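Researcher: Predict the fold of tRNA-t(6)A37 methylthiotransferase.
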Amino acid sequence: MATYHIETYGCSSNRGESREIERALRDGGHRPADGPEDADVAILNTCTVVEKTERNMLRRAEELEDVTAELVVTGCMALAQGDAFREAGVDAEILHWDEVPSHVLNGECPTVTPDAEPVLDGVVGILPIARGCMSNCSYCITKFATGRVDSPTVEENVEKARALVHAGAKEIRVTGQDTGVYGWDNGDRKLPELLDRICDIDGDFRVRLGMANPGGIHGIHEELAEVFADNEELYDFIHAPVQSGSDDVLEDMRRQHRVEKFREVVETFDDRLDHWTLSTDFIVGFPTETEADHERSMDLLAEVRPEKINVTRFSKRPGTDAADMKGLGGTIKKERSKAMSELKMEVVGDAYESMVGETFEVLVVEEGTGDSVKCRDGAYRQIIVQNAAERGVAVGDFLEVEVTGHNTVYAFGEPTDGGRPVDEDPAESTPSSA
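Model: Structure tokens for tRNA-t(6)A37 methylthiotransferase follow.
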């Protein structure tokens, strides 16, 4: 488990991006440090309004570099003047803000600590269903902190989910190192049963399944797809990190799947669900990755066309077997990462473009920047509704929206009824005349 420290400068947009970074790290099991000197990674979200601000950003980056193990610089100055940090001799990773979580997570499983308990964050309930995993990936340091999978009973997890719903949760996020292996330690594959029973809880809510390695869910993928098809409470969303399109690299990574198993999982969900979201991860520049291996990953991404894609440049973690391998040069990793990121934006942009003009029921999950809210449709695609307050739209509402546009990685929607929540009585929502 990594600890992080985030510092944010500048406008409300930067602050919103930092919140997104922190949410992703927290969902991945990472925790904030008391200060930069105690953090495994410090994240500097920069501003670049005037020359004085630029000098302050450079000075702060130098200060953070001196006291933290790793420094990541993002934000406006990082994107517009990234070379300024390099010219100043600052040893930092310069990234777009949405690349920061995948860089810090490094393709590893999320880390759930032994004392992890359900958490209610606004209307989002986070439900850790197990600790540990069944994998032994050569690049992953998480396994040293978590060990083998340890699964509480289905009954225990259902009761925790019920408590979250009774406390006001409208979205339950089922999390773990690898949710697909839930129950393996007790000799049974329990994930489909658990999801089925959570969906039977009385209430109006949605359930998102967290990361499940392809090797973990392959043995239950047909049963799992049936559960998704039968329960409208489940977001039609699967996060199955393939990591590489090359079986040779997957073997060197000691992943428990090969490309064909990943394809079979995807094809099964394609057959059972009309609209669903595939989220997957790729690690670029693993030490044994050849140019041909990289092209296989690019081909797989273009073929499967996931709606959500995390691209991570490989970095060594101390104590892992991959750390002892002779690495690729930074330029090679950077070029391959750039090529895959460009393809990613094309694929994701096409997915959101296809939504324009369509109507969806969405759940308002959290506040956005300014007077906007972030919503999720049934396939967990993000739709932004602007001018929310004046439309009477609030977090926790279910709405019907028409998608009017997109910004590559999310869509914009207009409430079809002006903002009144789905199922609300029109008569009750209309002011009476004096």
